[in-house]
Amino acid sequence: MVSNRLKAISSLINNGESIIDIGCDHGLLDIYLTINKKCKCSCCDVNKDIVNRAITNIKKYDLLDSISVFVGNGFEDLNLSDDTVMVLAGMGTSTILKILNKNRTHSIVCQTNTDLFSLRKSVCDMGYCISSENIVFDNNRYYVSIRFERGEKIYSYDEYLLGPFLIRENSKLFHDYVFSLYNKNINGYMKSIEYGGNTDLELMINCLKKYI
Ligand SMILES: C[S@@+](CC[C@H](N)C(=O)[O-])C[C@H]1O[C@@H](n2cnc3c(N)ncnc32)[C@H](O)[C@@H]1O
Predict the structure, then answer these.
(1) How far apart are CA 25 and CA 3, in angstroms?
(2) pLDDT tens digits, residue range 133-142?
(3) Which of 52, 59, 71, 98 has a Cα at 20 to 30 A from 41?
(4) Ligand 1 lined by 137 (C-beta under 6 Å)
(5) Which residues contact 139 (CB under 8 A, 6 or more apart)?
């Protein structure tokens, strides 16, 4: 029922934690966390039709008494309790950061495919550190999930770009992921050289080369 991508997010969540899943779409993650991890889930989406679909899914599992579902926009203050774990998945980094400008709790779990350097660096600059990470290949794409907790830690460029835990774990999947990032960016980099170079791209390519 649940994809490896959603299982990867749930593996960063502890049994029994209180969850707010912002941008819940189908609500499948919340159903999974309620059944398998005994979490206390609330979930919302900005789109009313989507929320109705989530309610239909949650009803199928007879969990309407356990999961609170509402129409809610993460760009507004959702009045979250600090001990709730925020889940922000399947959105771009800029949307995630915009939501975090209005809502922050002690723990935040994010999954995005866009600009992970900026996600890690910006969330850490807000006073968080990275407490766990994982990577999966699902539906022909790599998905990185990251859990942040309030705290302070200094990270290197490489760690912001590729993830301190993923670098340390050094798995075959991680190498494949780095290789795919390299292939995605190398043409742009070569072209940029013709026009005098691009320092950001050069930094990234040189970093990726080290981990292929
Ligand atoms: C691609 S879906 C991802 C759904 C789910 N989190 C997952 O990972 O499978 C993104 C969802 O975020 C919702 N969304 C986008 N911006 C939002 C916001 N500002 N507040 C709440 N939900 C939002 C969209 O309506 C959509 O249902």
Answers:
(1) 14
(2) 999 999 999 9
(3) 98
(4) no
(5) 3, 5
Q: Is the CB of 9 under 6 A from ligand 1?
A: no
Distances (CA, A) of 90 to 52, 176, 211: 19, 21, 26
Give pLDDT, residue 154. 97
Residue 133's region, left for phi above 0, alpha for psi from -120 to 50, else beta, is beta
H helix runs in the chain, sequence order: 4-10, 28-37, 48-60, 93-102, 116-125, 157-162, 164-169, 172-194, 199-211
131 CA distance to ligand 1 middle (Å): 24
Could you tell me which of 121, 108, 113 has the C-alpha nearest to residue 93? Answer: 113
pTM over 0.85: yes
Helix (H, G, I), strand (E, B) or coil at 110: strand
**What is the length of the chain?**
212
Which of 25, 85, 96, 136 gets mutated to test ligand 1 (max ligand atoms within 8 A of its CB)? 25
| Beta-bridge partners for 43 | 21, 69
pLDDT of residue 197: 76
